[in-house]
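Reply to dn_fold:

You asked what the input looked like. This is it:
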Amino acid sequence: MSVKIDRIATNILREVSYILATEIKDNDIKFVVVTDCKVTNDLSFAKLYVTVLDESKKIETLKALNNASGFIRKKLAERIEVRHIPELTFVYDESIKNAQKIEGIIEKIHKGENNNQNVID
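and this is what came back:
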């Protein structure tokens, strides 16, 4: 990716996080964290990865975010100086859940090694 696209993605990430925290009044969009933003090379689409504090409301939150994307784009147009604001798509970020799973596996391995050392000693 080019520096320009990376800069725009970072700006979109920062501004969308701020908009969600301060200007969205929808109760389904509470406690959302934007973790990453990927923008296409032609700047026509932006995929925003989000996590939700309450896993049980993941589907409702994603629907509410995608429904509010027009409002969020309008607010972005006021804050970011780009000719065309990309179409926004919100996707649930599975990487944190996967990282926790891997961390649990590593902890089990370390516990197993500690138990084996105690047997050898």
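DSSP finds four helices and three strands in the chain.
Hope that clears it up.
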